[in-house]
Amino acid sequence: MVRKPGIQPPTGLTGLSAFRTDPQAPKHKNLTFMLCDMKTPGITVKGFPYMNGAHIYNEVYLDDVHIPANQIVGKDGGGWAVVNVLAGFERSNMGLVYGLLSAVEGLVMYCNGTMRNGVPLSQDPIIRNRVADLAIGLEAVRTLAMRIADQQSRHEMGLMDAAAVKVFASELMERIGQVSTDLLGVYGQVKHSRFAKMGGFPEEVYQSCFVPIISMGTNEIQRNIIAWYGLGLPRMK
Predict the structure, then answer these.
(1) Which of 5, 14, 126, 225 is the most buried if burial means most Cβ atoms within 10 Å?
(2) CB of 20 within 8 A of CB of 57?
(3) Radius of gyration of the chain (CA)
């Protein structure tokens, strides 16, 4: 992977981060969450482009950066609580869920309009079963995401709820990528071509479906959260 050169963020962009402000304090009590103007001297941002050319994540270097104390969010030493709230909102994944809804709808349209052996793909019982399985999974995670949105509006969202959506939605995206590329065969490997089907979506999702499985805390970590905070199981020793 080729790294892009240093990227200076647009004027007025604000960064968010938790900083260790008390090395002597116990775990989870030594973090303070702060806002940071990305124009502050000493901040360098380097982009990490995906294999498909998309650019979402960056490396951020801080070299003797000074942040005013009035930029603290919450309380000094209370950064872990802020991190958990923000992580919960990010993991609830409403945007991803509705992106998957569009993807499944596109897959259904493709199967209805594509002939194989003289009949639409949608009439093949094996294909119907695989697409129906995706649609069922999508409806399940959409319902869960809506439940969490309701909890968020009432300030009741728990760590386990957001973790559950994160695991379900990210692994459903992986399954959608696999089914789509299986159905399209060699056409599922092209994107910028007149031969690309469904606007090149299968190739796109196949290359990027690993991202939500790893980001926001890997799915293995989310299963730990579900076990500890949701099911009350003992922690590993």
Answers:
(1) 225
(2) no
(3) 22
- Dihedral of CA atoms 125, 103, 135, 165 in degrees, nearest 10, equals 150
Same domain? 103 vs 185 = yes
pLDDT digits (tens, 9 = 90+) for 90-113: 888 888 888 899 889 989 999 999
Within 10 angstroms of residue 227's Cβ, the number of other Cβ atoms is 16
**In this structure, is residue 9 part of a structural domain?**
no
Tell me the CB-side half-sphere exposure of residue 149, using CA atoms within 13 A: 10
- The pTM assigned to this predicted structure is 0.79
Rounded Cα–Cα distance for residues 163 and 141 (Å): 12
Residue-range definition of the domain harbouring residue 118: 92-230
CA distance 152 to 92: 10
